[in-house]
Structure formats: C-alpha cells, structure tokens
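Researcher:
Attend to token order:
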Amino acid sequence: MNIVAKTALAALALDQISKIAVVFGLGLRHRLAIDVMPPYLNFRMAWNQGVNFGLLANDAAMTRWVLVAVALAIVVWVWVWIRKDGHSTAARIAGGLLIGGALGNVIDRVAYGAVADFLNMSCCGLRNPFSFNVADVAVFLGAVGLVLLTGRQKTP
C-alpha cells in the first residue's frame, strides 16, 4: 500500500475513532459540552450541515448531497493527481491527509446528515465559538501542504 493510501486511512481512522469515542462514547451528543482543559481544549457538540462555520446550511437536505458529491469529486481528483510521478513524499502525505479528512466528513454526512464537530479551543482571552473535528484538521493540513509542496517544477 502506498503512502497516500496509508496516510488517508490513518487520518480517516483517527477522525472516525475520535468522533465515536467523544460524541457517542462520552455522550457529548446529549451532554453538548464537556470541559477538558478550559479554555484551551473543550468538547462542544455541533452538527454542521453546511460547509465551514455552518455556511450554506439553509437547504440542508440538498446541501448534504451536493457537499458529498463535491467532496468525493475532490478526493478522486487529488488521488489521481498526487499519484503521478514527480511529487515528493511530503506532498503525497499532504494529499493523503486531505483525502482521509474529506472522506471522514463524507461518512458523517451520509450516516448522520451532518458533520460531527466537537473540538473547541480558545486561548489568551479570546473565546472561539466554533467547533471542528480531526477531519477538518487533516483537510486543512493537507490543503496547505499541497499548496506549499507542489507546483514548483524545476526546469533543467
């Protein structure tokens, strides 16, 4: 199995295991809030039916399937593109993170109708009202990694 697939599977597994453990295992879906290390780390339940910060959540039924389709199209495109010759191992890991994170959120949308966000972090007197999940972190790191690690073809 190549590094892209291994990284994608690791990100997907970590995302789904963390969601099952916190949202269902600790009962966050009913408790809605658990202070872990306030204000630095708290669990705050948020079912995100839209994209980042709940944007486009108005027509949740239609948005759900459009976002699933878009995420799957991106996953396929990144998978095909990043497996071509010329990409570094670090770029392939970034691609795997993006793929695994996107698939983690797709699973949530299909299974629950929304993405389970539960991580909430604040610091230094600033209160963050938003929640996110491990898949969001993987998508962010993967996207930033792909921007920074690809597209610089060396000319002879």
The first helix runs from residue 3 to 25. The two ends are 32 Å apart (CA to CA). Residues 3-149 form one domain. The CA atoms of residues 89 and 133 lie 25 Å apart.
